[in-house]
Design goal:
Number of strands: 9
Distance between the termini: 24 Å
Largest sheet: 7 strands, mixed
Strand content: over 45%
Structural class: mainly beta
Radius of gyration: 11 Å
Number of helices: 0
Shape: globular
Helix content: under 10%
Length: 82
Amino acid sequence: MGEVSKSHHLKLSPYASNCVDILDLSGELTESVCNASQTINAAGTVPPTAMVSLQSGSEIFLVEGFTADLGCTLSLEITPCN
């Protein structure tokens, strides 16, 4: 499973469903919706059968190491955190 941390490095598992300020994602990303009120930094892999939505209030960064495998569904949205 992937690893998620808030900006002050509090570990959540496997993903945050509530709104945190900064969300750092790594590993295999299989959670359907990942939310952040400000920024998402994604360095993980979205496997072929996953349906993943990254929603951030301000920024989404697909950083070095990020991959989305053929066959996955990936949505990136700048939207207020619910």
